[in-house]
Amino acid sequence: MGDLIPTALALMLVIEGVLPFLSPGLWRQVFERATRMSDGQIRFVGLSSMLVGLLLLLAWN
Predict the structure, then answer these.
(1) What is the CA radius of gyration of the chain?
(2) Count of domains in the chain?
(3) Biggest alpha carbon–alpha carbon distance for the chain
(4) Which band of pLDDT confidence, cut at 50, 70 and 90, is reported for residue 6?
(5) 19 within 8 A of 27, measured Cβ to Cβ
């Protein structure tokens, strides 16, 4: 269990790095769009992401 957090963090970093590595132009466009979002929209995206992650964890365990 002690190795789970570092492994999850490492996997997250790998997944986060795929888009900027494969398509830096598209990543830049996505990032520019994100900077134009309101705080409420960003919070909704963050909450949605956390809920989907929790549901996946519950489904796989």
Answers:
(1) 14
(2) 1
(3) 39
(4) confident
(5) yes
Residue with tokens 């995206």: 45
* Residue 20 structural domain: 4-60
Global confidence as pTM: 0.71
With a CB cutoff of 8 Å and minimum separation 6, the contacts of 30 are 19
Reported as a pLDDT band with limits 50, 70 and 90, residue 4 is confident
Q: Which residues contact 42 (CB under 8 A, 6 or more apart)?
A: 34
6 or 44, which is more confident?
44
For 46, left (φ over 0), alpha (ψ -120 to 50), or beta?
A: alpha
**In 1-61, which ranges are continuous DSSP H helix?**
4-22, 24-35, 39-60
